[in-house]
Amino acid sequence: MSEIQMPRLSDTMEEGVISTWVKNVGDKVASGDVLVEIETDKAVMEYEAYEDGYLVKQSVSEGETVPIGAVIGVIGDSPDAVPEDSGDSGSEPEAKPEPAEEEQGGKAEEIQEAAEGTEEAEGSEESAPASGDEAARPRTSPLARRLAREYGLDINRIQGSGPKGRIVRADIEAAREKGSSAEETAPAARAKEEAKPSAERAASAPAFDDGRASEELKVSNVRKVIARRLTESKQTVPHFYLRRTIDAEALKAFRAQINEQLSSTGVKVSFNDLIVKASATALKLHPAVNTSWVDDKLLQHHRVNVGVAVAVDAGLVVPVLHDTDKATLSEISTRTRELAGKARDGKLKPQEMSGGTFSVSNLGMFGVDSFSAVINPPEAAILAVGAMRQEPVVVDGEVVVRNRISLELSVDHRAVDGAVGAAFLKDLAEILEEPMRIIL
């Protein structure tokens, strides 16, 4: 009998959500079978079994969040095997914590709080509450109850964000920040509020209906992590931006020529494929851009792995084309479409989203002229590509209409100096304006 633990499915993953159990309790499992679909910080991924047997326990229900390493299920030798009680989510059961543990906030509470899913464990005081007042008590963890007491909060007035409305530590901290104890819980505080002058009370009263008819939407784990990582990127990475507009006449003709040659294969090269390949070529010429600044260390990457931003329903994911510099245009085209399809279906594997050394984000298909992209740490740069547009330009002393594309390079100033980034963008622009250099 062996435990199934929440795996690390991406380099930035800290916890996962059980999206769907593909196998039910009692089902036969063979090595390689998909057991469960897990929502990570980047996508919904399939997790396969590594041994034969039977799924005899699902320790975590669908929709629940648990940290990496927590037990999510058990595989046994027979469908009738009875697993030993492992505390379900890899932590101590919440049932009846010792007073000393509850007051001291022991390690078991911290693990249990992170698991956010053990209220259904056997023997839990909250899994089958009695009738009356006890039945009306909200689902909480010992740590949440202790913190509520310390902060003077009425836990019955706090809305839980965990599975099945369970109140977790984050809810207590949020209530404390909002000053819930002053407005919702403590009678003394309410009396103090009532003693204020009427004008002061009016200023602190809840806002009137603003007429926006707002509705709070469910936020996916992917969206939460995107928000967190982009905020961290802007706060911790010193960005600078370099802009250049290229003449795309030769690039347009080159693409038409390539696609004519590939017509019998069914492969069609896009402008983005050409830009991805040109970026890889420029990175080989400027290895100083193919770096990362991590923990006060500068890492030089000897492989060129270009990530391609793909918009999905849950947000934005960046599948990675490994060894892009060594791939042909047809290989880049085929692989990009395959990865984009898997991204939209939520079927990307961890290795298909990790190891990037540079990224390309193209919004040209939406008619966007130009934009500034946020760096995807720990990469040192990202290229933003705008739409191809016809513009009047001066050529040999005459005004003519030419197809042009705006490029903007966002650069991590800790890893790359301005002159280095400018030299990279200069060569990239020249490669795109003389596209035969892409394949030479």
What is the CA-atom radius of gyration, in angstroms? 28 Å
How far the N terminus sits from the C terminus, by CA atoms, comes to 56 Å
Chain-averaged pLDDT: 80
Number of helices: 13
> Would you identify the regions where 5 or more consecutive residues have pLDDT less than 50?
86-112, 114-135, 180-186, 201-206
- Proportion of helical residues: 25-40%
Main beta-sheet annotation: 6 strands, mixed
Question: Can you put this structure into words, describing what you see?
Answer:
This protein has 13 helices and 18 strands. With 440 residues, the protein is α+β, with helices and mostly antiparallel strands. The protein has a 6-stranded mixed sheet. Helix 10 packs across helix 12. The longest helix has 17 residues.
Kindly summarize this structure in a few lines:
The protein is an alpha+beta fold and 440 residues long.
